[in-house]
Write a structure and sequence with these properties.
This protein is an all-beta fold and 409 residues long. The protein is built from 2 helices and 27 strands. The model is unreliable at 1-37 (pLDDT under 50). Bound molecules: calcium ion (CA).
């Protein structure tokens, strides 16, 4: 049923596999989707929006950057997360700056095996007053262990690794699909994305099993209890949380490898890019308690229905595309900046492998039209959103880019 593809493991493997992956039955008609026939593999049309990329801060290049962010309400500096375990910051007001400062260095703790590394960083919403930020990384385990921890800043500029307090650990059965993105929602809770544990095809059926934290988006309250509390409306709140019970941290599940999610700053909608297995990349709008289908479904296509329920029990993507247009989705942001009027309210995301930047435009039926905004030669590993709402693209090769209006010339 499935095309005979070399698996697209996620962002790292996409880099490794670029140019060597091959499908012997995938591209084109995708006629073998187990009869579901519901994935529309038609290529996206070009959007009628005049945008282009410009190199941002061209005198700065980073070492395998995976994330870009600003502290809440503070447009004066950017923070760049480097996979090896270093976070750097630089003056956001100086386009020609050539210097960045080390904010924290935990390279000694980070294990980059497979798709491991320092994968996420989030400022507490009240960072300006409490100095707290949160790290997400993999350390050596069997083979890896994911760590979510809190660090504190005494000077609002740097973090002392000695302040680190581990909140949550997750032993990874394989080195790929670690997820790792973390971000605070408008509700003040910390959201954590974890992949299905790895390998290929979710062999342990982790994502559909709510008795573990794999293949899920978690939500915790870092402001109460030790090490954290459970928000009162989490779907499994009150569960004991043993390995034979649903995990109270879970907010949504059935995910394969959530690689970047964000909250629309205008309305709080939670958008997520979930990396596909062999053929389908997907964009999900996440709802409390939702089951997003993997490994029963890859996108809208049947993947492995063993033990699965009725199709109506799963939430399907709001947009999906096939591997003739990319190989590994990178979730982005709903554009809320002021520079590009035509992008207002459009969800902008990309593909690590193809370098394509897409927009999801609301249609007249309550759905979305996926359109191509730009074709690039970048390995789009992450998007960044400035305090001003403008969007940036992080190239895994080291450069930062800014999405701007193309006024010709
Ligand atoms: Ca799904």
């Amino acid at each position: 049923m499935m095309a005979n593809c070399i698996e697209q493991l996620g962002f790292l493997a996409a880099a490794v596999l670029l140019g060597v992956s091959s499908c012997t039955g995938g591209s084109g008609g995708f006629g073998g989707f187990g009869g579901s026939g519901s994935v529309n593999c038609a290529s996206a049309a070009r959007a009628q929006v005049a945008v282009k990329l410009e190199r941002a801060y061209p005198n700065l290049t980073f070492n395998a950057p995976v994330a870009l962010l600003q502290a809440p309400g503070d447009a004066s500096r950017w923070f760049v997360v480097e996979r090896a375990g270093v976070i750097r910051s630089f003056d956001a007001t100086d386009e020609s700056t050539a210097t960045s400062d080390v904010v924290i260095d935990i390279t000694e703790e980070v294990d980059m095996d497979g798709e491991g590394g320092l994968l996420g960083f989030a400022f507490h919403p009240r960072f300006a007053t409490n100095g707290e930020a949160f790290l997400s990384y993999t350390t050596s385990g069997s083979p890896l262990t994911s760590i979510i921890s809190r660090v504190r800043s005494m000077d609002s500029k740097t973090f002392d690794p000695a302040t680190e307090e581990v909140l949550l650990t997750l032993d990874q059965p394989f080195t790929n699909h670690n997820g790792g993105h973390i971000a605070f929602g408008p509700d003040g809770f910390l959201y954590i994305g974890f992949g299905d544990g790895g390998s290929s095809g979710d062999p342990l059926n982790n994502a559909q099993n709510v008795n573990n934290l794999f293949g899920a988006l978690l939500r915790i309250d870092v402001d109460i209890m030790t090490p954290y509390g459970i928000p009162p409306d989490n779907p499994f709140v009150g569960s004991g949380g043993s390995s034979a019970e649903p995990q109270p941290e879970i907010y949504a599940y059935g995910l394969r490898n959530p690689w970047r999610f964000s909250f629309d700053r205008a309305n709080g909608t939670l958008w997520l890019g979930d990396v596909g297995q062999d053929e389908v990349e997907e964009v999900d709008i996440i709802e409390n308690g939702g089951n997003y289908g993997w490994r029963c479904y890859e996108g809208s296509a049947e993947f492995n229905l063993e033990g699965c329920g009725a199709r109506s029990e799963y939430i399907f993507p709001v947009a999906e595309y096939c591997h003739d247009e990319g190989s590994s989705i990178t979730g982005g942001y709903v554009y809320r900046g002021g520079a590009i009027d035509e992008l207002q309210g459009v969800y902008v995301f990309g593909d690590f492998g193809s370098g394509t930047i897409f927009g999801l435009f609301a249609d007249d039926d309550g759905g979305f039209d996926r359109r191509v905004l730009l074709e690039t030669d970048l390995n789009i590993v992450s998007f960044g959103q400035g305090a001003d709402g403008e969007l940036y693209i992080v190239d895994f090769g080291g450069g930062l880019y800014r999405l701007v209006a193309d006024n010709g010339g």
